[in-house]
Amino acid sequence: MDNKRGSPALPKEGQIVLICDENQPRNSWKMGRVTALNQSKDGIIRDVELINSNGRTIKRSINMIVPLEMDIEDDPKAKPEPKPTPESPKPPEETSKGRYNLRKRKDINYDEDTDANINVITTSLSSLLPTKASSTLFLTLLALMCLTGVTAEKPDVLCNQHGLQLYGQYRNFEACAENYCTSSTRWSWKAGEGQQVWIPPALKIHKHHVTVKVDDGKELHIIEKDCAAVPFCEIIDCTLCWSNIVNPECHIIWAIIGSSILFFFSMLLIHALCYTPIQMKEVVNLCGRAISTVFYCCIGTCRRINPFRRSRISRWRTTITAMSILIMTTQACQEIDMISQLETSCDQDGNCRFYTEETLHLNQAQREGCLRLEKNGKTVKDIRITLVEVELHCQKQTIAFTQEIETRVWSTKRCAHMGSCTGSKCANITRTSRVPELNEVNHFVGATGCAESCGGLGCDCFYPSSGCIFYKIYALPKSVEPVEIFRCLEYTPRATIQVTSTTLNSRINRAESTEFVVPIGKPFEIKDLTINIDTIETPPAPQMNSWFIKKENGVALWPENVYPNYRCGPKLQDCTLVEDCHCSPAEDRMMCTCRDQNLTEIFQRPDTHLPVQSGSTRIEVSGKAIKAKVRNSATSTITVKIKDNWKTSVYRTNEVCTSSTEEIRGCYACEEGVQVNITCTSTRMETMANLDCDSETFAIACSPKGAATTISFRSVYARFRRSCTLDCGGKEKTHLELAGNLKYTGSIWTSIYRIISGLKAIKHIIDLRK
């Protein structure tokens, strides 16, 4: 028998027992009283006679009855008398002594209480120390045990040359660096040193910000960390790979070996195709079938992983083509798209003012626009306008309020012509009916129902008519905290602009930088400049169309067009329950299987809890609202109006500036570009210098102790070289050569990740130019 039925104890006459019923749970079994014990021919009791609650006499096997748990023995205090044992004759005493005089062994008493030994030890310990000292020692040991006990290690993240090192116990995680996100770890040779998270080399060779969300099973930890740049040669952790071949300056030996192997197999393939006497028709057909099979398999896999429409492919193809053209340009002042216009404004008194209006088009490739005021061939003012990022502020619309609940069912059965089971029985019962039989749960929010059940004597009813099962599916709140579900009707774009005004060739050269947020169509004035944002364009982000769920400890993504089962007003009033249950009536109850919406799990998942990175868009919490940030792939049109009241004079000094550069780091034909750290040193005072690099110009700071400035370039070749001239207002100019080898950061794996994420078309999976 199973663990729900049967008992090793034999039943007794007059004993109250439970009658097993295979179709009912144990708490629904009926009780009966044993009236007779039936013995078989061999004298063993195999069945008994019972009287049930209806007064009927039935027979049941002893395996189908279970005594009550609080059933008492006839005489619990009576102890079994020990059986008399016949006295055995004593052995004759030995006259001779044994070899050893051993102490007599104590007889083992298995009925002895083991607590006595514990009391002896405790008493002996307390007797050694005073009462106050022993209690103090006990409390101290208890505190140390609590402090040094085995506890779960809190998740932590460290930056390394591979990307990230994740420490601590976790159930799942998500790590994002710029626009790259992953939830998988990398296999490591060394155990016990945390889990490695790989980040693309194009991001690691520059300073980058990472966001890691770790779910340890109890709560979600959000870790923000700024990681320093890593030398590219330390990133390569393979031997015979493409990264070593195209970057021979890192590991020259492996680059030579890899190139030799590649050359050998290339020559072998050419020999097999051109000199081996085989029919080329069969080879071509075989290669064609193999290539077409692999191609269609890749297309099918990619469409299953990330389905998208043909129009989306065309849109991304156009975007990538435009980006490829823009990458070939540089961040020079003269290279941005600029429209100049002169304007004169006069009042009624005839006072006129002259304005110069410039329109700048800034994007991912050209994030900085430059305006320069010149006099007599000398630059006296350098104005740089940088598009830092674009913020999209959510205009919230509340959909519903809800809370964490558990859906339960309460049911009861009434026979015909009893209680509420009269007249038309279940026909008059609606979802909002308040039935007296359900007074225990009538105050809960839910739905009332009724279903007909069996009747007659076989169902413990007198009238031979169907009975009624009254039930209510209700919501039992598990938390009093309100939860809001909302969506964003629209996003209001705002551009974060940084304006740097630098004075050159004057008595005091200095740079003033101001950063502010400007919405579309609202002019912003700073000194003699009026800046207006005309247009802001951002790439599409599907996550921005999602609904959101909010409570005190954060905001998470909620599936679009999915309403909560438990819906309330703003103050958890006027609540309704839309139950998701499948019910079927049993003999005397309603059996229901209900599915609840787990709100806690939504906040625990790293891929739904804000902040969320979707491509180049980051959705995060801003106070009591949410906003989306776009640092890359944003385009803006900015109009700058300059008042024509500049009073300038060219000031010549004897200042001579010198400069030095660190190792040039970066990648070619990539979005991150090249970064050069220049340290400018002046002879007397702090000043600003003009750095002219062919078609690119920059304003950098100089000081007697040396001032460091980071400038950016873009290049499509591995060999980077720029010839620059440094002028800080003196009669002499210094020349500066910027040269270095850029790295190849593209790989097949990053290309596959981009196609899965929808960032590239199929034909750009393998782009060896990178």
TrEMBL record:
The keyword Membrane applies. Keywords: Membrane, Transmembrane, Transmembrane helix. Residues 73-106 are annotated as: Disordered. InterPro entries: DUF5641 (IPR040676), Phlebovirus_G2_fusion (IPR009878). It comes from the Eukaryota. Residues 75-97 have a biased composition (Basic and acidic residues). The chain crosses the membrane at residues 252-275. This is Phlebovirus glycoprotein G2 fusion domain-containing protein. The lineage of its organism: Eukaryota, Metazoa, Ecdysozoa, Nematoda, Chromadorea.
